[in-house]
Amino acid sequence: MCKKSSTKDKLTLGQMLKNTVRNDPKAGIWIVSFIAGLVTFPLMFLCLWWVTGNMVPQSELVGHLIKLAMVSGVVSCLVIPSVASCARVEKMSGPADSEPADPANPQVAESSSEGTPAPKPQTEKPADKKSRLAELRDQMTTVNTEAMGEVTTTFDDIAGYAETKKNMEFIVRCLRHPEQLKAVGGKIPNGILLYGPPGTGKTLMARALAGTAGVKFYAANASEFVNIWVGQGATNVRALYAEAKKNAPSIVFIDEIDALGGARSPGQHQEYRQTLNALLSEIDGMDKDSGVLTIAATNVLEELDQALIRPGRFDRKIAIPLPNYDDRLAIIRLYAKKRSMTEDVSLEAIARQTVGMSGSSINTLFNEASIQAVMENRSVITREDIDMALTQMITNGEISKTVDKDELEMVAYHEAGHALLARLVANDPVQKVTIIGNTAGALGITIHGGNEQNLLPLETLRGRAIMCYGGRAAEEIVFGKENISTGASQDLKDASRYIRAYIECGAGKSLLNESSFAGQNMIPDTKEAKELSAQFYDEAVKVLTENRHLLDRIAKTLLEKETLMEEDFEALFE
Where, by residue number, does the polypeptide cross the bilayer (predicted)? Predict the structure, then answer.
């Protein structure tokens, strides 16, 4: 019992000390300094004794020790605590005492004018004053929402994508004239989901929709909603929609919604679920006439939660694909207007060379070409600048001419093999062949135009697989099988990819698509793929052997000029 009572007393003393420090900072600082002085007292005593001990006669030693003890005690336990407390309190209260009376406060001003000492107004804590933890929480839970206000971007500012803009313009019509839909029993879609590869302009489409419709635009990234504080993500979602509803009609755009709306799993964090549920409630809640249209964008439609993309929430799903030839040409013309270029720059040729590139990639291409021109102290972009920028983007490396003569000859025949088979077997136009290496490790490159048909013939897949073997086959024909280089490693990977697509599209012995059984741990049968690989390689060797004179002509021209463009390459077949 005594032990328990003692523990309670200790807790009471500690609480008393804590309350003293909180209510009276001066006394609290003095107490803390006094305790610290007790610790430093022996050290100060020893230091004084070490300095003065040798100067004191033996008869006065006891009295001197008493004096040292008294001086050490007074300095350590009285003087230092007093100075520390006074200095600290002066620092805390000094500026406040020197502040003039607030003339806006009539009570304080009146008391002062009567000559009666005005009572010091009690400083009230503001209602929004928070602890340091709360302030940190506020900093970490703020969603970076971009209130665009009156967006000036319209569909006229977007090049290409005629069909996509037509679908989006219908949404604008619904926003401007909702009565037309109501007359036939329809309603404005609750949400619109834009999906497609990265860089295709999904955010730009959403901004253009808001700008054309003339409504407020609120943009946020889905990853910014989720927070370490459970429940804060849902609060952020509700706050965003509350602001949008105040300025209705408006558009809320959520980019990268897959960061929040991915398929839910048993091990998913509770914060994700609460935030997603809050978003679903705002999109398809009780307040369906709020005047807020939700637009979301994603690169991976198949990974989204089915509850999120079901009808009634995101009623319209609009694909934003990679631009086709006409779209690329329109985008290229848009960027070309902003730059000075030489007459030999063909915009149509650039459109053919940029198959598979997004609008963002084309923008980067022109920016890199501008950088190349500035590096050469020119204000005009040349064809070589465009070509160099395109090669740099494809290979992810800078130009590097550090290949010896023997290697250069092998590289020339290697690229000549690819280019010749691309023209004769794959029927793809060869846009550029070069034996100029780069810092990414590529010693040469052959750029051929891809086929943009929606239905790709199986013979085209077969021809491209054979073309991939052209470099290795040319090395074997010219330098012998024992001297084949390692430069075909990436070519073999590309050939395997074409062979797999060739088989899965039904060109093999079986119509079974084995990749559909991947979730059942099925080991794919590679026997047929190996047979096709050997067959395609033999055909590559056969075609190059039959056209050895063309192979030699292309390789020798490459050794002379290092780079062949499309018209130069075609001239070798005349």
Answer: 27-52
Active site residues: 415
On whether the CB atoms of residues 82 and 31 are closer than 8 A, the answer is no
Beta strands 292-298 and 316-319: pairing type? unpaired
Contact 273, 319 (CB under 8 A): no
> By three-state DSSP, how is residue 219 classified?
strand
At residue 351, the 3 state secondary structure works out as helix
For the chain, helix (H) and strand (E) counts, in that order, are: 24, 9
Extract the tokens encoding 184.
């036939």
Q: pLDDT tens across 531-568, in order?
A: 999 999 999 999 999 999 999 999 999 999 988 888 88
Mean pLDDT over 404-423 rounds to 88
Angle between helices 2-23 and 25-52 (to 10 degrees): 100
Whether the pLDDT of residue 112 is over 50: the answer is no
pLDDT digits (tens, 9 = 90+) for 291-349: 788 899 999 888 888 878 888 788 888 999 999 889 999 999 999 998 999 988 999 98
The one-letter amino acid code at 332 reads: I
Angle between helix 489-502 and 458-468 (nearest 10): 160
What gap in Å lies between CA 122 and CA 106, rounded to an integer?
15
At 488, phi and psi to the nearest 5?
-100, 10
Residue 523 has pLDDT above 70, yes or no: no
CB 433 within 8 A of CB 558: yes
Q: Where do runs of H (alpha helix) occur along 425-547? A: 458-468, 470-479, 489-502, 527-546
Of 519 and 173, the structure prediction assigns the larger pLDDT to 173
- The pair of structure tokens assigned to 38 is 């007790």
Which residue is listed with tokens 């060869």?
430
The mean of the pLDDT values for the chain is 77
pLDDT of residue 495: 93
Per-residue CA distances from 440 to 92, 219, 279, 356 (Å): 61, 37, 44, 21
Tokens of 112: 């002062």
Q: In this structure, are residues 279 and 290 in contact, taking their beta carbons and an 8 Å threshold?
A: no
Distance CA 339, CA 344 (A): 14
Question: What CATH number is given for 155-319 in this structure?
Answer: 3.40.50.300
H-type alpha helices, 290-338: 306-309, 325-336
Per-domain boundaries in the chain = 15-52+65-83, 155-319, 325-395, 405-571
Interatomic CA distance for residues 355 and 390, integer angstroms: 11
Residue bearing the bigger pLDDT, 159 or 39:
159
pLDDT value at residue 130 = 46
User: Token pair 């419709």 is at which residue?
Assistant: 213
Instruction: Considering the domain delimited by 405-571, tell me its CATH architecture.
Output: Up-down Bundle (1.20)
Mean pLDDT over 482-500 rounds to 88
Amino acid at 335: Y
